[in-house]
Amino acid sequence: MRPNVYKFGELIEDVTTHPATRRAVEGHAQTFDAAQKDEYKDILTITSSLRGERISRYLSIIGSAEDMIANVKMKRLMFNLTGTCTGGRCVGFNAINSMWAATYDMDHELGTDYHERIRAWLKEAQHEDIALAGALTDPKGDRSKRPLEQNDPDMSLRMVAKETDGGIVVRGAKVMIAGAAEANEVFVLPGTGYKEGEGEYAISFVIPRDAPGLTVVEARHPSDGRDMEAGFDNPVELGGITQGYLLFQDVRVPKERVFMAGEWKYSLRAVLNFIAPYRSAIGGCVAGQGDVMGGAAALMARANGLSEKVFREKLVQMTVNNETTFGMGLAASVMGKLHPSGVWIPDAKLANVNKVHVATLPYETKRLAQDIAGGIAETGCLPSSQDLQSPLYGDLLQKYLKAGSDGETRAKAARLLEWLTIGEGVPGCMHGGGSPDGAKLMINALAEIEANIKLARRVANLKEVPTPEK
Amino acid sequence: MRPNVYKFGELIEDVTTHPATRRAVEGHAQTFDAAQKDEYKDILTITSSLRGERISRYLSIIGSAEDMIANVKMKRLMFNLTGTCTGGRCVGFNAINSMWAATYDMDHELGTDYHERIRAWLKEAQHEDIALAGALTDPKGDRSKRPLEQNDPDMSLRMVAKETDGGIVVRGAKVMIAGAAEANEVFVLPGTGYKEGEGEYAISFVIPRDAPGLTVVEARHPSDGRDMEAGFDNPVELGGITQGYLLFQDVRVPKERVFMAGEWKYSLRAVLNFIAPYRSAIGGCVAGQGDVMGGAAALMARANGLSEKVFREKLVQMTVNNETTFGMGLAASVMGKLHPSGVWIPDAKLANVNKVHVATLPYETKRLAQDIAGGIAETGCLPSSQDLQSPLYGDLLQKYLKAGSDGETRAKAARLLEWLTIGEGVPGCMHGGGSPDGAKLMINALAEIEANIKLARRVANLKEVPTPEK
Amino acid sequence: MRPNVYKFGELIEDVTTHPATRRAVEGHAQTFDAAQKDEYKDILTITSSLRGERISRYLSIIGSAEDMIANVKMKRLMFNLTGTCTGGRCVGFNAINSMWAATYDMDHELGTDYHERIRAWLKEAQHEDIALAGALTDPKGDRSKRPLEQNDPDMSLRMVAKETDGGIVVRGAKVMIAGAAEANEVFVLPGTGYKEGEGEYAISFVIPRDAPGLTVVEARHPSDGRDMEAGFDNPVELGGITQGYLLFQDVRVPKERVFMAGEWKYSLRAVLNFIAPYRSAIGGCVAGQGDVMGGAAALMARANGLSEKVFREKLVQMTVNNETTFGMGLAASVMGKLHPSGVWIPDAKLANVNKVHVATLPYETKRLAQDIAGGIAETGCLPSSQDLQSPLYGDLLQKYLKAGSDGETRAKAARLLEWLTIGEGVPGCMHGGGSPDGAKLMINALAEIEANIKLARRVANLKEVPTPEK
Amino acid sequence: MRPNVYKFGELIEDVTTHPATRRAVEGHAQTFDAAQKDEYKDILTITSSLRGERISRYLSIIGSAEDMIANVKMKRLMFNLTGTCTGGRCVGFNAINSMWAATYDMDHELGTDYHERIRAWLKEAQHEDIALAGALTDPKGDRSKRPLEQNDPDMSLRMVAKETDGGIVVRGAKVMIAGAAEANEVFVLPGTGYKEGEGEYAISFVIPRDAPGLTVVEARHPSDGRDMEAGFDNPVELGGITQGYLLFQDVRVPKERVFMAGEWKYSLRAVLNFIAPYRSAIGGCVAGQGDVMGGAAALMARANGLSEKVFREKLVQMTVNNETTFGMGLAASVMGKLHPSGVWIPDAKLANVNKVHVATLPYETKRLAQDIAGGIAETGCLPSSQDLQSPLYGDLLQKYLKAGSDGETRAKAARLLEWLTIGEGVPGCMHGGGSPDGAKLMINALAEIEANIKLARRVANLKEVPTPEK
């Protein structure tokens, strides 16, 4: 692929070897490797409804509650194996399913052929077993204004031309896109529900990550300077995060890869189709990372010379938190409904409740992990791994770091705890896929206040009471 | 039935009309009425695997995740309709399923015929559509001692004789038994897992509620004096709670109704079979009551002259709490496993996590309801309904209670809020079916600390660290 | 005094002996008794700035941080001794201080003689050592409307006539007034800050509790029916709550007892003067009740046969909660300022922060107490004390209630826990002295967002960013 | 001073200019600068009891509740001005006061002259206005073993020789020492309470930071690689943290600077003297940083184009958290007692309760700040400042980052939020000065369970119930 990924002001020639991206590549590689293993293949693969053969679940249509449950489990598993997010596969997976349903609706209601296009593209993508990133979030500019009220119309990604052959040209950006650097292709969604007159923003398509006119600039993340260092201060080689800013400078998308091009009435539906499974499955993500945190905290207790049993109450609370986001993901899955296109859409209320938990419980889980692990791990408060090798004083540091384990093991365990709770491993799930305030708005819309008032009135035989006007 | 239920030192001649029990009877009656209604019958009835005809779900074998999910929904529905607990059906339902599996195991492993007995009894019970209470909790005496270490061997219910015809005679008590007064029969379970030498306590059977030698003394509950008054200070006529102390004075149980008689090895299994579905479904209970609380709080806001929209943040949090216990119940259901006897056993870890939520979230929900509803509802701080009728000053009270509604409606709404949060409607779910500390012990046993340590070690390539001995 | 207190539709001839009021009278009597005891007299008495002799602190001017701190401690002490609220002294105390400052301001700015009136009245009241209730809360009617917009102008207490001799006539009500039945006199405050044209509502005065035209109807509280029973189901004889609805049917107040009569500009100040010390000292109240809850929970653990050490984590959290509301009261006290009238006004921000804690932490404290104490105490789930005496089965109940203590002691301890957490002892502190939402509005007004933005901009050398208009 | 500070394996020649330390130096410099300013001098300076002249409060004896309150305020102020910790002055301040009391006790009880020594040293230190770090924490090794049970006796700092002239030689380490690099001298305390036979560890002294044999290796902190970069990705130039590992290779301390040398009985007292004021004042620290977080979050809201009023509920909760830790520090101060040496010791129970809050509330405050600020700030998810200057795409990034402010201001504001919540500004207060579990142990020891049981028994007239033996 054409090198078009930058970080720290420089072009990354090869994402698989460059220190800023190689760990994230390795994490994504594990999604392929694990699919080959007997113990994981039922979770990571599925028989394709399009091809009749076994394919990666990441490229499948979620056709039932069981499929959706497997999705939640897959997220948990991959966080278990990589310690963090493999967004370069999972957001794309979600995007496919969202647009599978939305294109079906458009074709049936408008007579378009979008669904045929996505079907043809997907069949091939399954065969190639591509890594597919998904791109939802627009820069948006001033949050108090709609796209066309902005000083600059490019603040949300838009279609600047529709070509005669049905292709489109797009300009703008998608930001904080997980795993773009690791992906073969990027699936673009409309960033929100658009209104009449905003059709230029209602677009969806898929392009190669190295499409002409597309530039990816990677965001920093906490302590990412350590990626560029030798030593173990970034202690995890098996996983990592990238979140790119995708700059579209009049990128051309050929017709067969365009899945929405102005049909603004369907943009909200596309977003809602995206949100429900995303906010369900993300409960598996934070549970999976929470599992590793529980393990890291218990390990750190031992490295400090203490039995993890001392911290039973805290470890139980961590488990409660993990199982809650996981369980709510399962609940949303099982209470879902089948869309006529064959996509299973989880229950929106339960999914959004889970988003609220995902935005709060992991903070408690991290606090508990730091509490168990002690001051050395709270902020990774120990010298660098270079210092531990210093001929002048490295042996002294090793001596004084020793406790329930040798000094280096304890140092690495502390770094892992730091990585998970205040370092590079923290995936940014609070706002990923939308803010908790957005989730609360949806819960409010879905909460059946009037029905509940009726229940209350019935049990106590109460008259109706009108809502005050003001 | 023979009158054998007492409260306030007096015999209740007819539970259906006596003010101490009639509301609870009415609540239980709704389980039968609703089963006839089109909108509820799918939840409240099921085709019997024994009879091939439609029966009450309360007397069914839970044979699949779907059945277990319907159970969770049924609990939520019945709290919606009665405002509180209908324990005189649901605990018995749980007990049947627990012993269905345990008797199956005993018959297969010991060659007994208990499973045949329970099958025969159940088939008939389904036909009669009985209301069946379940009895788990023993008095236990000094919690630091086992049953035979107590000064008095009767502190847990025990078998004092085994008769030649296979019947048994039992002595002791079961305490805090929900809905016994409303039930036709009572299904008794062993109260805990017993050890060798404690066989006399490992007993299970079913008896009529008016069996000779059995006396039921009802516990008080908050503000239960109001049951005996005229007026609306107990504002709910459609539901109510009874929790009886069942005193067994050498009660004889015929052979065909005995399902365990000394097989102590199976007592823990029976309890675990009971706990998992109970702690799953109870999430539906507190969600169902939370729905009514949300409605009552919103109604009270209106009665105060305020739109419920003012309290959106709080109502959303109440919804989050309700959906969490409900959702975790669904999650435990869907992650369950089929016992060879045909009983579906929910996932124990998720069920116990839910128990922890059930012991905490409703307290926040109640606090939020009181917060929205204002000082008048917080502790029901308004004069009695007799006072509102006083010829001397009743009109003045009505005048000053008026706000967004007339005074009496506001007074009743405040009473409902009080009833739900600090009054007769509070069902005691924190310890019902076992304490949250017990649930935490189970979570600790089920949490995979070693597996999580392995995950942590793998992602950061860390050496093993031994647990300190002390 | 003239009997003018009613409950359950009936006149209470003698509040000191009637079961509905005698426990509350006893609680208030303890404020007098304890003042005589060496161990408490420094907290309960102070040298009067008016009389130069030792008087009850409840009738004193709070003249310094030390005095305010002693107030907080006094509240904690009295909850320790009575288990609940003695509002018939403490609200009046707060009211005196509020109006001491407000009358001073009025006299200095308007040339009135209100301050002289309150001084003369107080000097005499100190000599008589009266019990003085305080009355703040108006019925208010529809919360979305101001007093004169209501259908009925009486929804807030108002002055309907000003007499030529300077006396006034008032009509309306004050509601949920703690301790009125136990008080000799009632100190009335304006219920909120009034605006121009609302002068008739801006009134303050003091009257005997049996003033002609004044009727007191007592509110119910949870389980208050037990007051009327024999036995120990209301387990506390040393304290109790009354909260009266005071109906003013054209009550005449002589000039020398009128402290505000139309000066609406000063009504908000009076309320703010009231709020700051009230919301500080109430932290002592809930801490004091929390102390008793901690003791009751530990006792109940022992009565169950368990060491309270098993529950160390929970007891520590209860202590954290108690010390937090107590400590925040101290903090608000020490950060206060002296009003020119000689009244010490605690810091409003810290006082209102404490109100938020008072509206939340006790709910956790109660939950923890119920958690420790077990199912029998959670909702007081045991038969009535009449049942425990039944000749038919009382001995059996006593037998089965026995555990770490005899049955009756355990039953009483459970009743105490119930009384404290879901029964008559619960004082309604969430909305007492104003709602937590009101406190949050004040915190918002007092929070220095702009100053904090400046701090943030300074440390990172950031440009100013304007607030969006909408 | 002799360069003896290392980081990343290299010697720092000049801490005032080296990027790894210059921000922390600048933060500490502000403690001197602000002391000159009229608005701050009352907080930052005090009249010396030793010199009779105005000195830095950081070198004063805390002689009253007022002094202790000023200490709490000073911490809050310095976090306001630097955004983070200036540990190189405040821990030393605490250490002086701790040993002022402990040496007084030793001199009075043992006839030593330690108090004279510390007095003489302090008088001079006040004159020089030195920056003084404090060193408490030992490496400790295996936490399950006491110092002499460790494989290596050096795991806690110890005296390896006592010289004839009264000087001592020490070996070992002190770890995670805040501000050592910025300090002129380091005040060393015993790390815990020692027992008989452990006298070699019971040592206290003060030495220059560049004493022969002393090496300081700086710990990393999150994102500290950015210190070494150009640009604004570490957005704060006015403050910073260093936490050093101090390696003592047989360091000689002259007699006049030795304040404890083997008197193990006094080591626990020294630690307790240290803990109470430290855990009180740290409430000011986290409040001060919380103020900046509130400002940064509100600023970020504006930079996103939203009014901070949208987030009122969250900002109020942040204020509640800030004022709680601040207020509890004040409360512990005001409830303190005067030690005969003239040192005011805050109340231990309230101080430890505050430590529990300090270990929990800031995590909520950070979460709320991230919630308000949006995804870009949650993990600082935007390209590096080098990227923003890229000639290839820098203008595009600036364009797309623009919202309620220009792109660079928004980027910097996001970096500030990241710095405060998941970056270099996070000071590690959870374990600083001891763990929250340690604080809970102290609260448990100080909680008056027996007294509370007595209160409970008294109000309900309950018999004594013995604690079970097991």
Give a quick set of tags describing it:
homotetramer; 470 residues; alpha+beta; 6-stranded mixed sheet; 15 helices; 14 strands
Please outline the helices and strands:
Four copies of one chain form a homotetramer.
Chain A: E1 5-7, E2 10-11, H1 22-36, H2 41-44, E3 45-47, E4 54-56, H3 65-82, H4 87-110, H5 114-128, E5 132-135, E6 158-162, E7 168-178, E8 185-188, E9 203-208, E10 214-218, E11 243-253, E12 258-261, H6 267-303, H7 312-334, E13 337-338, E14 344-345, H8 348-358, H9 361-373, H10 375-378, H11 385-388, H12 394-401, H13 407-422, H14 436-446, H15 449-460
Parallel strand pairs in A: 1-10, 5-8
Antiparallel strand pairs in A: 1-2, 3-4, 6-7, 7-11, 8-9, 9-12, 10-11, 13-14
Helix pairs in contact in A: 3-6, 3-7, 4-5, 4-6, 6-7, 6-8, 6-9, 6-13, 7-8, 7-9, 8-14, 9-13, 12-13
Describe it.
In chain A, 46% of the residues lie in helices and 14% in strands. In chain A, strand 3 and strand 4 form a beta hairpin. Chain A has a 6-stranded mixed sheet with strand order 2-1-10-11-7-6, covered by helices on one side. In chain A, strands 5-8-9-12 form a 4-stranded mixed sheet. A two-stranded antiparallel sheet of chain A has the order 3-4. The first copy, chain A, has 15 helices and 14 strands. The model of chain A has no long low-confidence stretch (mean pLDDT 97). Chain A has 470 residues and is an alpha+beta fold. In chain A, helix 6 (267-303) runs parallel beside helix 9 (361-373) and helix 9 (361-373) packs antiparallel against helix 13 (407-422). Chain A has helices at 22-36, 41-44, 65-82, 87-110, 114-128, 267-303, 312-334, 348-358, 361-373, 375-378, 385-388, 394-401, 407-422, 436-446, 449-460; strands at 5-7, 10-11, 45-47, 54-56, 132-135, 158-162, 168-178, 185-188, 203-208, 214-218, 243-253, 258-261, 337-338, 344-345.
